[in-house]
Design brief:
Strand content: 5-15%
Length: 221
């Protein structure tokens, strides 16, 4: 027992106190038995407390270890989640970037197409304007020619003074379908060769005015 106390082996000391308590109790030394029993109880409680403390420490260490492992696993899962989110976000940014680039490309293509159409339209407009000016010039030339021909034709028509002088109760209906008429009226005073009173002739004809003028001058001579 002395050796056990010196080296601090509590289990051996406990068993020694328990044995001594039984011996004194059997010998009728109840006081000694009680004292040894008290020592047995104290060291037994001490051992229990130490074991409880050790188990508590062990359980606490196990809990802390499991807690740390759980936290590590949670951190790893969180890192994996963050990495997955980063990959998704990167793909999303790439998709947006590609969409913007594609949209800009389509805008440039459309702008180029519209610019080309604008140039073609401007060229066609310029050609149409030139053709319009050409047509207007030709139309003006034709109109001027027709008006000039109309003035020439009217210069060959009998004047109202001549008709008033030789005709009574007459009217002239001359309304060409176009500016220049294919038919026209003609009138002239003819003098006979004997020198008598001249006669007035008029007609409507579509022949050449030169022929009528020739006939007129022939009979007048």
């Amino acid at each position: 027992m002395r050796i056990a106390i010196e080296i601090g082996v509590k289990d051996d000391i406990k068993e020694a106190y328990q044995t001594l308590s039984l011996i004194d109790s059997a010998a009728g030394n109840f006081k000694g038995a009680y004292e040894y029993h008290k020592l047995f109880k104290e060291i037994n409680d001490s051992i229990f407390n130490v074991e409880s403390a050790e188990k508590t420490v062990e359980m606490t260490a196990m809990y802390d270890s499991e807690k740390k492992e759980t936290q590590i696993k949670l951190l790893e899962k969180d890192k994996e989640k963050q990495a997955a989110l980063a990959v998704v976000e990167k793909k999303k940014q790439q998709t947006i970037l590609y969409s913007v680039i594609g949209g800009l490309f389509l805008v440039l293509v459309f702008a180029g197409f519209m610019y080309n159409r604008f140039k073609v339209t401007q060229k066609q407009k310029h050609i149409i304007t030139e053709q319009k000016h050409l047509v207007e010039e030709k139309h003006k030339e034709i109109t001027d020619s027709i008006n000039y021909a109309e003035r020439i034709q009217r210069s060959f028509l009998a004047t109202s003074e001549m008709l008033d002088e030789h005709l009574k109760d007459y009217f002239v209906f001359f309304r060409p379908k176009d500016v220049v008429s294919g038919y026209f009226y003609w009138a002239a005073e003819l003098n006979p060769p004997s020198g008598g009173r001249g006669s007035f002739h008029c007609c409507i004809n579509f022949f050449d005015n030169n022929l009528l003028t020739f006939i007129y001058r022939y009979y007048r001579a």
